């Protein structure tokens, strides 16, 4: 497998996860602002801060209102993390790797891109935003289901899996950060306990985790339990701990991964550090920011190990490497 193909399927998976996660984050934030009392002042610009894209937004807009935030997150082409930009990147990556991914994905991603282009104004305006975002989420899940059900679990699959879980781990920390930021803004509210339950309930729903949380924790929604669940649960596929473990599993099936495996094991130790998980408020935000930096560093390590810019490298899975070695011996 050529390194440029591995890089493209890796980024296809990352961008697909980013589209769905952004749609979920916007949808749940919309509901959160509707559910919270009017006296609680939480602005839309928080979504820009949570995603770390303040500089790009401020270059484009001087007013930090709902409409401009929606335009930047959903349709701004200069924002590489917007839904429109991410879909364009997926199309380009799939167009050049159609021999290693199920061919139906090309059709589905084109359909989703056309739907977004034709209905973008619904997402920017509030009246039909929920329906618009739900269609995007369903489209992403359809594509992901096709990948799971029909794509061979070879090297290309492992790189898609790496990209998916890296992006997912990063977005889970950002959802948690959004919850902590909202909680801090309601500290002075006399009904803060109720507000906190609303906030953390919406964080769980943003990750489709509310039902599994109640099954696993058997308790009402609380800040400490939600944070621990979304960080360390070993069986929920959007918890940070699960995502890191899945990446370790994929790296163990690929060559030249010793440095990455060590890096990922260190991150997993930080995720399961009981002392760190007792943090709250601003210290918890610092901890989550540190996790985001470590996850970002993993992306750099993946690029350095497998995606050199000027050297074409053939990448084989562990089983392929062993077979080649056996053939040489014979």
Features:
single chain, 330 residues, 16 helices
Task: Lay out the secondary structure.
Elements: H1 3-35, H2 45-50, H3 54-60, H4 66-75, H5 83-95, H6 104-124, H7 129-150, H8 155-185, H9 192-206, H10 210-217, H11 223-232, H12 240-251, H13 258-271, H14 274-277, H15 281-306, H16 318-329
Helix pairs in contact: 1-5, 1-7, 1-8, 1-9, 4-6, 5-6, 6-7, 8-9, 8-12, 8-15, 12-13, 13-15
What does this 3D model show about the protein?
α1 runs antiparallel to α9 (192-206). This protein has helices at 3-35, 45-50, 54-60, 66-75, 83-95, 104-124, 129-150, 155-185, 192-206, 210-217, 223-232, 240-251, 258-271, 274-277, 281-306, 318-329. The model is unreliable at 310-330 (pLDDT under 50). It has one domain. The chain is an all-alpha fold and 330 residues long. The chain is globular, with a radius of gyration of 20 Å.
């Amino acid at each position: 497998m050529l390194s440029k193909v591995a890089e493209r399927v890796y980024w296809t998976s990352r961008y697909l996860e980013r589209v769905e996660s952004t749609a979920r984050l916007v949808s749940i934030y919309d509901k959160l602002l509707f559910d919270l009392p009017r006296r609680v002042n939480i602005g839309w610009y928080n979504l820009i801060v949570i995603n770390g894209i303040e500089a790009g937004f401020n270059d484009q807009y001087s007013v930090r209102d709902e409409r401009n935030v929606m335009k930047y997150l959903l349709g701004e082409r200069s924002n590489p993390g917007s839904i429109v930009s991410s879909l364009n990147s997926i199309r380009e990556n799939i167009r050049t790797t159609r021999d290693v991914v199920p061919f139906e994905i090309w059709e589905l991603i084109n359909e989703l891109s056309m739907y977004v282009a034709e209905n973008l104004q619904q997402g920017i305006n509030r009246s039909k935003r929920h329906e618009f975002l739900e269609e995007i989420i369903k489209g992403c899940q359809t594509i992901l289901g096709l990948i799971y059900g029909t794509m061979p679990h070879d090297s290309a699959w492992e790189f898609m899996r790496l990209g998916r879980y890296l992006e997912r781990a990063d977005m889970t920390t950002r959802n948690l950060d959004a919850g902590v930021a909202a909680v801090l803004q309601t500290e002075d509210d006399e009904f803060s306990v109720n507000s906190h339950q609303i906030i953390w309930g919406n964080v769980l729903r943003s990750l489709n985790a509310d039902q599994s949380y109640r099954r696993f924790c058997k308790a009402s929604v609380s800040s400490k339990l939600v944070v621990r669940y979304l960080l360390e649960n070993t069986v929920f596929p959007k918890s940070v701990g699960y995502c890191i473990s899945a990446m370790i599993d994929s790296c163990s099936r690929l060559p030249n991964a010793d440095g990455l495996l060590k890096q990922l094991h260190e991150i997993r130790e930080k995720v399961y550090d009981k002392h760190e998980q007792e943090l709250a408020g601003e210290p918890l935000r610092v901890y989550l920011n540190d996790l985001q930096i470590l996850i970002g560093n993993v992306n750099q390590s993946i690029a350095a190990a497998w995606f050199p810019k000027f050297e074409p490298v053939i990448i084989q899975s562990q089983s392929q490497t062993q077979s080649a070695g056996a053939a040489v011996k014979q």
